[in-house]
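cytokinin riboside 5'-monophosphate phosphoribohydrolase
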Amino acid sequence: MIEKTQCEKKGNMEGEGTEMKQESRFKRICVFCGSSPGNKSSYQDAAIELAKELVSRNIDLVYGGGSIGLMGLVSQAVYDGGRHVIGVIPKTLMPREITGETVGEVMAVADMHQRKAEMARHSDAFIALPGGYGTLEEVLEVITWAQLGIHDKPVGLLNVDGYYNSLLSFIDKAVEEGFISPKARHIIVSSPSSKELVKKMEEYFPQHERVASKLSWETEQIEYSSSCEMSRLEDIESSKMGGRTSTSRSGDYLEGMLNDYVGGRNKLKAQKSASTKFVAALTCLQFFFAVYATFLLYYMGPSIDLRTKPEFTWATKIAQQWKQLMITPHVIGHYQKASSSLVMEDVLPTTPSQVCENEKIDFLQKKSNDVQMIKLKRELYDEVLNFQSKTFGTETLQELMAMKSKWNLKGPNSPKITVLLNHFKRKTLCAQLDSLLQQTLPFHHAWVLSFGSPNEASLRRIVDTYNDSRISFISSSYDFKYYGRFQMALQTEADLVYVIDDDMIPGRKMLQILAHVAGTEKYKNSVLGSIGRILPFRQKDFTFPSYRKFRSKEAGLYLPDPAYDITVDKIVQVDFLSSSWFLSADLVKTLFVETPFTFSTGEDLHLSYQLQKYKNAGSFVLPVDPKDKETWGDSEHRLAYVSETTVIFKDIVQVRDDQWWKALSTGYLTQWAAMYPQKVDALFYAHSVDEVKVLAPLLEKFRSTVGKKAYIVVSGGSFCTCEDAATALKWPTVVCKERRFKIFDLAIGSLSGVSDSEAPVIHAVYTSMKGLIKIHNPSVVITVADIDPHVRKALKMASETNSNATTLVLLPRASVSQVLWIADLRSTALPNWNRMRISVSIITQNRAKSLTRLLKSLSNAYYLGDEIPITFNMDSKVDEETIRVVGSFEWPHGPKTLRRRIIQGGLIRAVSESWYPSSDDDFGLLLEDDIELSPYYYLWIKYALMAYHYDPQVSLPELSSISLYTPKLVEVVKERPKWNGTEFFKHIHPNTPYLHQLPCSWGAVFFPKHWREFYVYMNMRFTEDAKSNPVQIPKSRTNGWQASWKKFLIDMMYLRGYVSLYPNFPQQASFSTNHMEPGAHISAKDNVVKHNKQDFQVPLLKEDFRNLLPAMKMPPASKLPSLNLFNQPVSLKGLKAAGAKLGQDVLRCNNATEVVVVDQDTGLPHTCSKF
């Protein structure tokens, strides 16, 4: 028996390889590595570890042929493990790299170019160990070939101890600068461990855009189809001469490295002799026959390249000159084995009936007799339809066909449709082609795809016999799994794409129906199909079941489901489609935006997920006419039903469950999420483990507060995984395996990698967070203020897309543990977090030391990332030292403004004119320079405003200001008795805040609406002589106060029943204190009242005040006690009654039941209103 040549063996392997179950998809892996062992023992250990991994997976080795350095280690270890080893080495390097006995088979080649071509041709994948120039040159060349589409083989870097970090950084820089495309970046797979690297390479899927270009170049093999026989004869002749020479034949590099890789075989010239001349003559004849066969076969069938017909050889150019003499293309191109089929087959089939086989369907449609399950499934289906009917609208087939469509199916605007039929082993191709040829709307092209199929030859023969120029056969020995058909779809120039599994036989009207619906305005941005799934719903225990859970309503739906008599009579939106996909050609590329969760399955869900995430496109199952099989997407639904519903293997079910849960956890808006919108108080976002730790106290406070709900989102990937976050939070890592909302891992690092460019991070964070926010409707998204600016931008954009008002809260790290009270705010108040603006206004003149003390206390306070403008109001007599203090003060929280009077105005003008609100959310904090503040003063203001002003469920219009100070005296009566709020309110709670009719001048925040009102009131009532003022409050010392802005504010508050909120803590500790330094009132010459410092100075709060509040939170507004001007307990209604009774306001109102109401925008008195 004659031994088969290498070419014949290769051909047989391509047809038989997929039939055998192997531990790895790779038969041989080429390892590039150095002839030096390197300086670290870890490099040598890694070489041996890689060799063991190859042996464990039954993978043979192709390497550089040397016996020293890492090459020697890896080859010896693989050989000792019982695997075949092929070494390829240039003859010139043999003395340098082979110092002893080599292992396995050694091929000596002429030069480095030939070495790379042989190594590539014998390998299914490439791995680079640490090495030098040669290693880099080899691995970069195979990467370049992959980028050009010359091969689809994975290329891996074994990144031992970060050896290739600099190279990866360089490549990332090239991507950023536009020299390498982002898709080409994904060609390189890297990992520090051999096991993980080989696993990643097993899952590798090529992402270059021109898959067809590789297949086109493979047609060039036809030109050398006889080269194997020629080489065999030469081998025989050379052996007679005692060996081979290193001289290459003149035609050896006719096609360059391309043909060396794709299919060319090294053609070595024999020594000159009589026999070699004979062989040379025979070779020439065979060569010209090959050229003739090339252009004959090339022009008897259309090119595999579905866009252009590239000119690679001079033979092709000759063929083009003869094109007019040839038959018009009508048969598909014969790739790879075309010439051999001409030789081996005496009689080729000429009609489909001679080669067609039909799928025998032994399966009878299962009908469930489980009454409970039928009831549950039907209930869920009805709930879905009712919801979609109310929110989106559903149509019957008749109604859909009556809608206006952009496609004129019978006119000039008829759509071009490319149909892709993916086949492996099932015998349905003839039935599918027959159905397509009978469609009421003709297709433009039909591509029959065979990737790694053991039936490739029979599938090709079937396509041949149909003899239709629109039908093409595209094959590859590489198994592209489920994604290859969609990558092929990228090549189409048609308007629409119809991808069909081999278990679908569409009815004759299907293309017409699909094209019409795809042309409607409503469904133009959609993917359409005939079979779909609705993913699981949440159970009562707040977990999600497996999609295959038995007897579970929440497990979701398979539509249509004949087992439960569920037919689709109206279009229904699903979470993903199965078995067929009809969509715009422009939408196909969306599938490849992100790396899939796995390449082994789930392209159906990944397509729908990516389309919704990046294109806001839905997935829909079309209705059918039950009486007309020609409207069915699958006239033999039993095939698809068996494919989809009989998958019971635990591993496959688990993978699919993991995939849909991952999609839902990263923002996929499923039908459950649409039907049952969630409402959570907060979503936390952490981009690193450190950020998780910083946010942990506030997250735990939310989760431990009754009625509150909060989750945390982490970046994932190399930044912060779910497991990392769980460990930082001291949660069991099992939470990352449960299908329960707790931690959302966005896997951003694994998708986009590390990059200095903002685009990948912004894109990944924005799209996922947008979906999560839409699903969970958080009141706030909370993160740290110093988060990566790219991430912050993405979070801001995502928050702003939510129509239900979600606010991004950026908290300084030092403040997080001080604002645990956020969890006590109502969810309706939280979205107002960023609305308020506190404008600090400082009144100063000639107390530089006091001012310095105030500014120091301002700088040391806790702030929450808010913008806080600060203004210095200086009178005309300001001294030089004060000006220097003001000028040198640095304020990082907002703009700093300096104002100085030309004419001395005095205290009344200095205060009242120091601030005027710019909006209803602008609050004024007025501070004289002898005041000092607590570090917690801003937190008190923010908490009080959020609880009593910005909560839509709280109505407290009487609140006009918030005091930082707690008084020790009853200031407005002649005796000025001492007063202690802690003692006074001990029957309620000793530390309860309270409402008081007295405004505070020693540190207070004034509300914008009431301050406008005060401006108008003071303008109408100001008199130089206090006794001539029309308002005289009974028994109040304020009646005699001269030149006091506070007197006029007290009068207005008394007349209209307004109050101020006061703190109340032990020892009257406050958020501000007054140092009672000489000024306009204290120690003034005309002031006969003595002011003892101990009666006014109070201690400042130095600890978190939340722990001192009743139940550790602000009491409800309805529970706040209220005092009148004289510190007597009076209700808010009683305060209004007292003001009305006095009857001295600017408008005459009913003294018993009415008070003055003003225009909130202008402050002008408007009318009288009953209280």
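thats it. The CA atoms of residues 409 and 1168 lie 71 Å apart. The chain has 40 helices and 36 strands. bye
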